[in-house]
Amino acid sequence: MDSLRPTRRQAITRGWALVGVAAAVGADLGVAANSAMAAPSGPAVPTVPGAGATGPLTLRSAAQAGAPAKYASGDPKRPGLCGEIAEAVMRTDPDLHIEGLAQPVPLRRLELMLSNGDLDVFFCLLKSEHRHALMRYLPVPLYRISHVLAMRAGDERAPRTWDELRAFSRRQPLLLAQGTKLAATLQEADVSFLESARSDKEALQMLVRGRTGGVYGQDFNLRQAARGAGLESRVRIGPQVFEEETQYVVVSRQLPEAVAERLTDRLRQISASGEIARLADRYR
Question: Which of 10, 138, 183, 202 fits a disulfide with 6 by CB distance 3.0 to 4.6 angstroms?
Fold first, then answer.
C-alpha cells in the first residue's frame, strides 16, 4: 500500500500541473466571455434571404415632416405623393414591406439617419452635392418639380427672370421653408431670402400676414400647402418656372446591392406602367 502512495515531490508536481490546466481553462473561458460581452450588437438591419434579391424583406423608412405634398397631407384625395409611390412599390412586390411611412422626421434628420444607416430607404429627394456623400440615389426618376414664386392674390408684380427676382428680393427677402435644398439655388443666384418658416404652410401664412412679399418653393409643395391651409383664394402661384429638378428614391450606402437592385427593378415597373405619372398628375 505504501508503494502506491505518491511521494511528497510527486504530489507537488501533480498539484502544479493541475493548477496550470485550471489556469489555462480559466483563461480560455475568460477570453470567450469577454469576446461575447465585447461583440457589438450593431444597428438593426433588414433580414434579407438570398442577400435580398427575393423573399420577405422589411426596410426602414420615414415620412418627411412639414411636406404634405409628399406625406400625410390630411387630404384623402391627395394623401401624399411619395407615400403613394412607396405603396405602389409594395403592391408590385408582396414580400416587400416598407415600415415607418407614417413617422414624420425633419429633413435634416432624415439625411443624417440615411447616412448613419438608421434608415434603409427614403422616397423623394432632390439631388444635391452634399447628399451624394451621405446616400445613394436609385437611377429611376420619379417626377419633376418646378421652382416657383407664391405671392398674395392682390399683388400684381410678377418677376419672370432671375434679374427681376433679385431686384424683387432686395426690397423684401423671399421666404423659404427651413432645410430645403432650394436655399442653395437662391444663394447661387444671389437672391435674398430668409429660412424662418418651418414649413411651406407656415411660409404661406406669413405671406398673407405681410411678413414677406413672396415664398419661393416647389410647385407641388406650395399648392398642397395652400389647399391645406385654406389659402387658395388668398395666394397665387406665379406661372414663371425658375428652375426644374427631379425627385428620386434614395437608399443608405450600407444597404446590400441586391436590395438596391430589387427596389430599382420595382420602380422601373411602376414607371414603365405609367403609374408614377398618373399619381403625380393628381398633385399638380
Answer: 10
On whether both 219 and 260 belong to a single domain, the answer is no
CB atoms within 10 A of CB 78: 19
Domain that holds residue 64: 49-143+247-281
Based on the fold, state whether residues 258 and 138 are members of the same structural domain: yes
Domain count, the chain: 2
User: Rounded to two decimals, what is the model's pTM?
Assistant: 0.76
- Does 102 lie in the same domain as 238? no
User: Where do we find the cell 422616397?
Assistant: 123
Q: Using alpha carbons, select from 217, 223, 274 the residue that is nearest to residue 241.
A: 217
| Cα 6 → chain centroid | 76
Give the CA angle between residues 6, 9, 12 to the nearest 5°: 90
pLDDT digits (tens, 9 = 90+) for 149-182: 999 998 988 899 999 999 999 999 999 998 788 9
Distance CA 71, CA 224 (A): 11
DSSP β-ladder status, 174-177 and 235-237: unpaired
The pLDDT tens digits for 26-59 are 434 343 333 333 333 334 444 444 457 789 999 9
